[in-house]
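Hi everyone, sorry if this is the wrong subforum. Our group has a chain we'd like a structural model of before ordering constructs, and none of us has done structure prediction before. Sequence below.
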Amino acid sequence: MEIPSDFSAASGSQVRREFGDYEGAGIAEYYDASYVVRQRSDLDFYTGCTARYGDPVLELGCGTGRVLLRLAQAGYRVTGIDLSERMLSRCREKLPDLPGEVRDRVRLVAGDMTAFDLKETFPLVIVPFRPFQHLLRTEDQLACLARVKRHLAPAGRLVFDLFQTDPRRMHDPCFLEEHPVPGEVTLPDGRKVRMAERTREYHRAIQCNDVELVYDVSFPDGRSERVVNPFRIRYFFRYEVEHLLARAGFRVAELFGDFSRGPLRDDSAEMIFVAAHAGSGG
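Answer:
Right subforum, don't worry. Here is the predicted structure as tokens:
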């Protein structure tokens, strides 16, 4: 994906353009430092789901291990799958700092969430922080759900969250401008990182937006760099997701609008689905 000319670097800085998808190195490099990630309030929610439904847990799109490692530290066994070797490498780098019994509860698998086969079932499958929205085609969404169904125990639960689409983000020109994300982060090596985001293009006919995450990095030696990660993300509506789940052999057991288990409302930022096998009780 070509980066537009209005994303030129500040004077004396270098622009690093990354892949136009989740494989971009910048996403892995600065993911944990992002305010968008650090302010997420979902860790207690997913820990509570694990306490309720049991382990071992399968996490799709585990990334750098933000949720996975919290569950392992809480005493649960977790298998994490991710397509990006870069993200998995970041997760592996954190393991030596953890006690041996925590490391023993973690299994990391490089794989595609639409085409994996672990030959076992889990009482809980989770997909935190919207990896499902990187599946742009209906065929891929159904393929993912089919794999989950194969790996979900008979009384198990699938729990995943999506953002509830803000209608303005389907058309409003204001989001085509670069918007800074709050907070500057200082990394252990002294680099300072500021993040911004913008929508590059709307594709309402296919329910996707082209989005760019921008990381402005200042090095201790005075150098600066701008890392731009462009990617496309799919947005969903409530009943569309319910139909997808039904087509894949699931039913919606619970639906929340926030991680405190509040109801889905017009102004809810999240759509959090708890799904079970169709025809199962409870």
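For your construct planning: Confidence is low (pLDDT under 50) at residues 1-11. The two ends are 46 Å apart (CA to CA).
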